[in-house]
Amino acid sequence: MPILTQTASLVVGSCERLLTQDCLLCGAASGRCLLCAACEADLPRLPGQRCPRCALPTPHGEVCGRCLAKPPYYDRALVAFRYAFPLDKLVQSFKYGHRLALGRYFGRQLAALTGESLADLIVPLPLHPQRLRQRGFNQALELARPVGKAWQMPIDVRSCQRIRDTPAQADLPWRERAKNVRGAFHCAADFTGKRLLLVDDVMTTGASLGELAQTLKRHGAAHVTLLVLARALPPA
To answer: pLDDT in tens for each of the 236 residues of the chain?
Structure first.
């Protein structure tokens, strides 16, 4: 049975169809949900003890050595999953297969990590206009919509722009990613004193998120929290 069944293109949301369907991962009957309960329970999770700044595992949940040596411009990272099989296949199907129902499902997972007092405003990581035309949608915005709806939190899609069409981060070695996104974002708003929730799908080195967080801090943001679907762990 394939990891993603053809029913994925027919669904409307995690539990929104009137007719029953099969689980996107194992093919078992899942009622009106995208995933059956067993597959949902088996999605890869991060260890409970992890750095509060970047979400990488640490022995006792302390700030990791990397963040101590060079603190990132964001203040906190909330992450729902570990980027590993089979979650990676679902994310790729969402981004490159245009299965937007998965975006709503994932967004609800992110909403469960947040609270109404966490931030004043949601900022989805912007795509360059050329990349947006190619893909047809911004995956970060699709993840942000359920969060904004759940917590009645406004989403700002106008203030920040990606002004450099850089090569895809996934195609570059980890060490080259920070240089690749340097100066990639522009902000046209004054965020003085604002607490911002910066949303994206996958965090690997955190270079893109860190670059935008730096831009937001330069424009007055008091606190930037990352809200990310999945964290990729460094190679062993």
So the answer is: 445 533 333 233 445 444 567 999 999 998 889 999 999 999 999 999 999 999 999 999 999 999 999 999 999 999 999 999 999 999 999 999 999 999 999 999 999 998 878 899 999 999 999 989 999 999 999 999 999 999 999 999 999 999 887 656 555 555 556 556 777 899 999 999 999 999 999 999 898 999 999 999 999 999 999 999 999 998 76
Is cis: bond before 129, omega within 30 of 0? no
Pick the CATH number of 43-231 from 3.40.50.360, 1.20.1250.20, 3.90.1200.10, 3.40.50.2020: 3.40.50.2020
CA-to-CA distance for 165 and 163, rounded, in angstroms?
7
Each domain of the chain, given as residue ranges in start order, spans: 1-42, 43-231
Q: What is the DSSP letter of 8?
A: G
